[in-house]
Amino acid sequence: MKEYTIQSIVRVFGWDELAAEDRLLIEAAKNATSGSYAPYSGFCVGAAARLQNGTVVIGSNQENVAYPSGLCAERTTLFAANAQYPDQPVVSLAIAARNKEGFVARPITPCGACRQVISGVEQRYGHPICILLYGTDGTHVIDSIDALLPLQFSDSYMK
Fold first, then answer.
1. Which of 4, 60, 121, 139 is 20–30 Å from 84 (CA)?
2. Active-site residue 74, yes or no?
3. Average pLDDT, the chain
4. What sign results for the dihedral spanned by CA atoms 109, 111, 112, 116?
5. What band does 156 get if pLDDT is binned at 50, 70 and 90?
6. What is the pLDDT of residue 158?
7. How many angstroms separate the CA atoms of 127 and 121, rounded?
8. What's the chain look like in SS3?
């Protein structure tokens, strides 16, 4: 038998400890929550991706009465970025969420499907994506999807 130890590093920053460009990206993600269509859950999620050329692309969650037909903010953002700027790697991805009381205190993390898509985008461009998970109690910063999806499926399995 073999045994592996999987370790993830998550750094937690206060607002003033973040770099100015990261604060701007988080603000874009927070603003993107206003584009959410969440009549069923009332949970609005926004995401903002900074591309290598400095362009910022935003997206938000879009619900549908047929629940599986909706889409998360992370995937709308990444798919829009890849479609509009196919030659630009995503450098950072900020995610923010709010409910009827306001922005959440504890940062939310991407769902499994979004983690897999983030992994695919990293693989596509051969570039890690810094993930910024905003919460009013602090922002969790993760250097790559590897920390959130350590045993990810990749195209190398199909070769």
1. 139
2. yes
3. 96
4. negative
5. confident
6. 82
7. 8
8. CCCCCCCCCCEEECHHHCCHHHHHHHHHHHHHHHHCECCCCCCEEEEEEEECCCCEEEEECECCCCHHHCECHHHHHHHHHHHHCCCCCEEEEEEEEEECCEECCCCCCCCHHHHHHHHHHHHHHCCCCEEEECCCCCEEEECCHHHCCCCCCCHHHHC
Q: Does domain 11-147 have CATH number 3.40.50.2000?
A: no
Query: Who contacts 22 (Cβ-Cβ below 8 Å, separation ≥6)?
Result: 92, 94, 132, 139, 141
Q: What is the pTM of this model?
A: 0.95
Whether the pLDDT of residue 20 is over 90: the answer is yes
pLDDT value at 137 more than 90? yes
Domain ranges of the chain: 11-147
